[in-house]
Amino acid sequence: MKPAPTLSSAFLEPAGHSLPGPLLELRKQRGTALVDMPLPTRKTENWKYSSRHLKLTDGLAASLPATGKNGLSLSLPGYRVVFRNGVMIPEASDFPDIEGILIQRFGDLDDSDAAALAERLDNTLDTRAVQMARLNSARFEDGLYIRLDKEAVLDQPLFFVHEVTGTDSGSAYPRIYVDAARHSQITLVEEYLSSGDQPVMVDSVTEFTLGDGANVTSVRLVMEGENVQHIGATGVRQAANSRFESHCVGFGGPLRRHDLMVRLEGEGGECKLNGVVVTQGKQHYDNHTSIEHVAAHCNSEETYRNIAADQSHAVFNGRIHIHEDAQKSNANMNNKNLLLSTGAEIDTKPELEIYADDVKCAHGATIGQLDKISLFYLVSRGIGRREANTLLTMAFINELVEQIPVQAVKDAAQIRLNEFFDQTFEEA
User: Fold this and answer.
1) How far is CA 314 from the centre of its chain?
2) Cβ contacts of residue 349 below 8 Å, gap of 6+?
3) Mind listing the pLDDT tens digit for each residue in 178-205?
4) How do the domains of the chain map onto residue ranges?
5) What is the pLDDT of residues 81-92, one digit of tens each?
6) What end-to-end distance do the CA atoms of the chain give, in Å?
7) What distance in Å separates the CA atoms of residue 266 and residue 331, rounded to the nearest whole number?
8) Is 16 exposed, middle or buried (CB count within 10 Å of its CB: 0-12, 13-18, 19+)?
9) Which of 10, 30, 111, 232 is at a distance of 20 to 30 A from 417, taking alpha carbons?
10) How far is it, in rounded angstroms, from Cα 259 to Cα 411?
11) What is the distance between the alpha carbons of residues 348 and 309, in angstroms, rounded to a whole number?
12) pTM here?
C-alpha cells in the first residue's frame, strides 16, 4: 500500500530570526510538531476536491525575500500597512495615531507583549482541520499585531496590503492578530496582490478576538495572479454582544482556499458572513466556513455565491454547529451558484449540526445556469447578447458586492469583474 504523502523537510528549515524570543520559541515548537505531517489527499474530507491542486514542491519551500521595488498603487482612503512577501515595509505604510490603538509589526514587540501574543496565537482556529495554518505558525517571519483598548474606535478602515513577488519561486506567510477589547470598533481590509510569474505560495492566517460588545468588520479581497497558490485561514472568537461582519471577494487561480471559523462564545453575539467567488479557465476556489454557536441567544447569517466559467471549479462547504447550551440560537445559511458553461463545476455542501431544541436554523443551496427566458427578454428589447449575459450575471452577485462597506474595495472588485465579463462573454 502506497504511504500517505508527508510535508517535505525542506519546509521545516529555519526561517528568518528577526522576531522577539517568545515568538521564535513558538515558531520552533510549531515546526517540531510538523515533522512527518500528512498532506491532505482526496480521502481527507475537507480537502476532497482541492488536494490535487495543492503543489508543495521543494522549490516553494524557501521564504521569498522582502526586497524589490513596490509595485502597488497606494492611494487608499484610510490607513495602510504594506507587506511584501510576508514582511512589513515601514516606508510604504501609514499608521494611525489614535489613543488606545496599538498597531505594531511582530518584530517590534517587546518581550512582554510578544510573550502575551505567543500565548494567544492559534487559539481561534481548529488547527487539526486547518492543516496549512500550522505551517504558517512554523514559518511566519513577520506579522501585524493590532490591539484596541476598551471603547477605542478606528475612525477609518485599516488596509493590510500584501504583495507577493514572483521573480523567484518560494513562499510567504503573512500573519495578523487583532485583539478588540470591550466596545471597540475596527474595519480591517486585507488585499492580496501579486507581481511576477514564477510559481509561489501564500499561506496567510488572520485571527480576531472580540471582547464584550466589540464591533469588527473584516473585508478580504484576493486578486493574485495565475502563478500564485493562496491558502488562507481566518479564526474568530466572540464574547457577549459582539458583532463580526465578514465580506470575502475572491478571484480564482491554480489553487485558492479559505477556511473561516467563527465561535460565538458569549450570549447576544452576532456574525454575518458574505462571500463572492468568480472562476474561469481551469481555476479552482474552495471556501470552507464553520460557525460554532456555543452560547445562547446568538445570531448568524451566511450568504455565499459562486460563479464558474469555462472549465473552472468552485467549492463551498458551510457548517453550522449549534451546541447543547446554545438555546434561542438563530442561524441561516444560503449558497447560490451559477454555471456559465457546461465544462464548469461547482460543489456545495451545507451542513447543520444541532444539539439544542429551541432554535431557528435554515440552510439552502442551488446550482443553475443563466435563465434563458430572461436572456431572451433582454435581447428582444435590443440589448446585445454579451451585455445581457453581463447584466444577468452581475445581478446574481450585485446584492453582496453592494454590501461591502468600503468603496475602494467595491471599485477594485468591479474592475476585476468587468475583466471577467469581457473574457467570458462574446458578442453574438
Assistant:
1) 15
2) 316, 317, 318
3) 999 999 999 999 999 999 999 999 999 9
4) 9-424
5) 999 999 999 888
6) 53
7) 15
8) middle
9) 232
10) 25
11) 16
12) 0.95
